[in-house]
Specification:
Order of helices and strands: EHEHEHEHEHEHEHEHEHEEHH
Structural class: alpha/beta
Oligomer: single chain
Number of helices: 11
Number of domains: 2
CATH class of the largest domain: Alpha Beta
Radius of gyration: 22 Å
Helix content: 40-55%
Bound molecules: 6-O-phosphono-beta-D-fructofuranose
Strand order of the largest sheet: 3-2-1-4-5-10-11
Number of strands: 11
Length: 323
């Protein structure tokens, strides 16, 4: 009897529920027993698992968050913690695991596999879209649509008052959300973690715009280690540009919630099914992704060690269109 366990770990992302649904139903289709693990790796250590059926995942596809809950487990980073996790899987005779999450989730999965040999297939679920081995990660499209909705609204008030707005978005190590929000939101400037920009650069760019009769401006800023980088930048810019009101909006965790877009629902459904089909096929220590609309498997080692650089064409387009 095949027994597959599923968990979500790290920062949640809209579409995780659609992915859980697909993995559960896919596993049942292939006549496997399914177990849900609550609270990611922490729940695995605490043996917080329950049997799942087709009806367990009814009516969840359209909801953000994750019915399995998520956590960033410090204990799983220890050998003792992982040993407890393994004992719990062994006791239930689990033969494979689907781990939905990002970088941290896959690092944990990779070490766990190397130590105990439990077959694992990872699914890229993070709004950051910063995972090698897939064109898009679950939740990214929804997160960008959320930022665009916010930017459109801020543009209205920025226009009415002729103000400069700094809008901080998520993605502390990766500028995917920032660059797509900036292009889609018609921003004047974007500050990316991948590219050094000084307050002087921002001032010069904003002044160029004002010389071309721009009455208001939007600067999209990718957050840094702690939220609030946009406040710091706005303060420095306001010391130089004194003839304009400057305001800051930090979008924060609003980007992590909400109903997944159609793109995320389809992506999550295909990846959840792909993860289970990978396990059934005997794949292990791999991540399922979609590249050029085809399901592909990449080793977890590559997924965590290789980077997916920002598409330079997006940066080029932003430069030209923000004039
Ligand atoms: O990795 C997803 C993400 O939302 C990042 O964009 C953000 O920097 C971080 O998680 C926030 O983490 P936390 O949920 O711990 O505040």
């Amino acid at each position: 009897m095949k027994r597959i366990a599923i968990l979500t770990s790290g920062g949640d992302a809209p579409g995780m529920n659609a992915c859980i649904r697909a993995a559960v139903r896919g596993a049942i289709y292939y006549e496997a027993e399914v177990y849900g693990i609550n609270q990611g790796y922490q729940g695995l250590i605490e043996n917080d698992m329950f049997r799942m059926y087709s009806h367990s995942v009814s009516n969840i596809l359209q909801h953000g968050g994750t019915i399995l809950k998520s956590a960033r487990s410090e204990e799983f980073k220890t050998k003792e913690g992982r040993k407890k996790a393994y004992e719990n899987l062994k006791e239930r005779e689990i033969t494979g695991m689907v781990a939905i999450g990002g970088d941290g989730t896959f690092t944990g999965a990779h070490i766990f596999y190397e130590e105990f040999g439990i077959p694992i297939v990872g699914v890229p679920g993070t709004i950051d879209n910063d995972i090698y081995g897939t064109d898009k990660t679950i939740g990214f499209d929804t997160a960008v649509n959320t930022t665009l909705d916010a930017i459109d609204k801020i543009r209205d008030t920025a226009d009415s008052h002729g103000r400069i707005f700094f809008i901080e978005v998520m993605g502390r190590d990766s500028g995917y959300i920032a660059i797509q929000s900036a292009i889609g939101g018609g921003a004047e400037s974007v500050i990316l973690p991948e590219k050094e920009s000084t307050p002087d650069d921002i001032v010069n760019h904003l002044r160029d715009g004002m010389r071309r009769d721009k009455s208001f401006s939007i600067v999209v800023v990718a957050e840094r280690d702690v939220p609030g980088y946009a406040v710091e930048l706005a303060k420095k810019v306001s010391e130089v540009i004194t003839n304009k009101d400057i305001r800051v909006t930090i979008l924060g965790h609003i980007q992590r919630g909400g109903s997944p877009t159609s793109t995320d629902r389809t992506l999550a459904s295909r990846l959840g099914l792909g993860a289970v089909e990978g396990l059934i096929d005997g794949k292990t220590n791999q991540m399922v992704g979609i590249i050029n609309d085809k399901i592909v498997y990449t080793s977890l080692h590559d997924a965590i060690t290789k980077t997916k650089p920002l598409n330079p064409d997006l940066i080029r387009a932003m430069k030209i269109l923000s004039m």
